[in-house]
Structures are given as C-alpha cells and as structure tokens.
Write a sequence for this structure.
C-alpha cells in the first residue's frame, strides 16, 4: 500500500520556484566551501601534525566530506 508523504495545496509561482532553487544552490555552495576549506587546511598540515591528530593522508578527503556533508555510510 502506498502513502502520500508530501502534498501541495497549490502550485508554486515561478518566483517561488526560482527562490527555492537559489536557496538550494546557496546551501550546496556553502557545503562545498566547507569541504574545500577543510581539505586545504588538512593538506597543509605536516605528516607529524596529522599523526598527532590520528589522521592519515589517505583519509583527508573522507574527513573533509564528512565535515561538509555529514556522516557517510
């Protein structure tokens, strides 16, 4: 049996839809900036600093991704 999880009582105007797309793009850009900043900062650390933090160079991208987009499976 199927259930409706989202219903609309009316259609969105073109301006409302544009505002929604713009908001989603802004959120995606903000998350991407967090990813890039985290990646850059971790890559600038020395191997010794990374070792002190318990981070290997191979895991830098995964850590940056988790910081920006949340826990991965």
């Amino acid at each position: 049996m199927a259930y409706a999880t989202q219903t609309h009582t009316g259609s969105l105007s073109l301006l409302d839809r544009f505002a929604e797309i713009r908001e989603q793009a802004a959120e995606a850009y903000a998350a991407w900036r967090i990813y890039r900043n985290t990646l850059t900062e971790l890559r600038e650390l020395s191997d010794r600093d990374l070792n002190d933090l318990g981070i290997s160079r191979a895991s830098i991208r995964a850590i940056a991704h988790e910081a920006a987009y949340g826990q991965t499976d």
Remarks:
- Residues 14-69 form one domain.
- The chain is about 65% helix and 0% strand.
